[in-house]
Specification:
single chain, alpha/beta, Alpha-Beta Plaits, Sulfite Reductase Hemoprotein, domain 1, five-stranded mixed sheet, three-stranded antiparallel sheet, 4 helices, 19% strand
Length: 206
């Protein structure tokens, strides 16, 4: 149930795009009770829309008791992933597992600038549009490829391939270098394509 009255949005983070059933149930009950809408975003998060401001803290508290975490400044972006192996017959890797490894490594107290996105594709078909993301990981039969600097929007850009046929551990190390470079070279929120031309950019196209 939803309405057209003005309210606020609350975004519940869903690591690896997984929606726990207790959070789904409670979100539905709250939406019915307080007449707000639920939207599954393209970034694979649960967005509660038109939430009346006077009950927003109550909604957050109810979901937080179930372990829900919410979108906020300074959090490392959750990767957008395809369903992957073993749920897709084209999948070469367990995308949920890789997403969780990335989150575990980079989800630290260190603040990050939120203006970049990450995507994981479990095969070269690229169902998550990985080449249109700032950092993209694509599984192939000979290892992983990594792309940097892609974006969507009004002027889309295809990411530059910076690694090919590398291991999972090398993928994590490559992300670390990109994140550190982005942090050093930007003062405000900025997409990675805007720093590709920097002479100190740590990777060449391959």
């Amino acid at each position: 149930m939803s309405n057209n009255s003005a309210g606020i949005s609350i975004t519940v983070l869903l690591p690896a795009g997984r929606l726990p059933l207790d959070i789904m149930k409670t979100a539905q009950e709250l939406a019915n009770e307080y007449n707000f809408g639920i939207y599954l975003s393209l970034t694979q998060n649960l967005r509660l829309i038109n939430v009346p401001e006077n009950i927003a803290s109550h909604v957050r508290e109810q979901l937080a008791t179930l372990g829900a975490e919410f979108k906020a400044l300074g959090l490392f972006p959750l990767p957008r992933i395809c369903i992957g192996k073993p749920h897709c017959n084209l999948g070469l890797i367990d995308t949920e597992q890789l997403s969780n490894k990335i989150t575990a490594r980079f989800n630290s107290p260190k603040k990050v600038k939120g203006r970049f996105k990450i995507a994981i594709s479990g095969c070269p078909a690229g169902c998550t549009s990985p080449r249109n993301c700032d950092i993209a990981i694509m599984a192939t039969r000979s290892g992983y490829s990594v792309y940097a600097g892609g974006k969507g929007g009004l002027i889309p850009r295809v990411g530059r391939r910076i690694k090919v046929r590398i291991t999972e551990e090398e993928v994590l190390d490559t992300i670390a270098v990109l994140v550190d470079f982005h942090d050093r070279k930007t003062k405000v929120k900025q997409r990675i394509f805007q720093i590709l031309a920097d002479p100190e950019f740590p990777f060449v196209e391959v």
